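Per-record layout

source: Brevibacillus porteri
name: PhiEco32-like amidoligase-type 2 protein
length: 429
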Amino acid sequence: MILRTKASQRANKQETPVTQPMTANAKEVVAYLHRPEIGRWLLRQGRIPVTTGKAARPGWRTYRICLYQDHVLEIARSEEQSQWLLHRMQEPEWQSVSLPSTETEVQVVQGLAARSLYAAGADAGQVTIMAASPHRLKVVEVEPNWPAKDADEYMQQARDWWEGRMRKQPQKLQSLGADPEFALRKPTGEMALASDFLSINGTVGCDTTRYREELGLHQHPVAELRPAPSEDPDQLFMHIYDNLALAYKKIGNSSIEWLAGGMPFQGYPIGGHIHFGGLTPTFSLRRKLDAYLALPLVLIEDAGCMSRRERYGFLGDVREKEYGFEYRTLPSWLVDPLVTRGILHLAHLVATNHEKLQATPHLKLPLIKAYYQGEKEKLLPYVAQVWQELKELPGYTLSRVHLDRYFSFLIESQSWRTDEDLRKTWKLA
């Protein structure tokens, strides 16, 4: 049985909302993006399809997208064949794309451009993308600047968008939520379907991922918890425990094991999304979540997490919601209650102090490589450093017991026990 603790009092309840300033490209980012091969390397690390632009692709369309963070300022499209990328005999004819656009390809291009800008470490710039269809796109280049003739106009557009975006949310953490997933394993070692035990809806249900893409069978392999959010990470932790206890009753099969982590079964990645109410997923905030949540967790991740990174788990992965946003980078941290509680307290601490935090791994190429390649030994000194920084925050005292246990576990452990039935580690069985 997991012992319940009284929800701690949070020091930030009386804080006034914060107005975040606009950010500009760091000089380090500008320097390395002037070397296109580094930009392409960064994109490849984030599993973004790239091309050098040296091969002609007849029939492909070329897009130039100017952005500030994930806001598209303008899109221009060339309908010509792409021989200019090879020979550059003459500049193509560019046509402005009306925004917002209902074209699927344009919408996919916008999303890929914003993801590419983030992966390159920039806050503003121009992304060039080639597209044959909404499902076949490649990034040619990320440039850390806008065309000079339009820079003043774009800056004003960006400023207006930023101010409006900041007004939509109080920019003060109002609630913390999550929807961690887990998989089920039969005694034979095969995957059991969550949909055989759980419905789609409810506080304990199935993720909408389908089994082997068999759309007509309505088979869903992954189980998902949907605990009620809370201002307090201890309270959220107890909601998760209550959900697990409910799942134990609903599944009701002692021979079925429960597994968490990154990919307990090949082809079925699972995650541990964290929800932040009242905040906007600015590039700055995303980078702090990457720096203090995602990178340290690598120290205990297993091979399944590396496999998950082929499609999910890239840095800065968020989805904006009406309440705020969900951070989607992390694998399922249900493996161990110590990890779960530590992650929730750490998420709360980072979200309430992100403007004070100093770590900038997006400016250090070896750290980016270490994250995507799972190079634990290279991240160990970094994790020790950020732990020491976090200890200096006034809010750390409120979470000291759980964060000290969590970081000690990270530094001392080889990897988390993803093959162990989490019902046992949570003392459900």
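summary: The longest strand covers residues 175-185. Residues 233-251 form the longest helix (19 residues).
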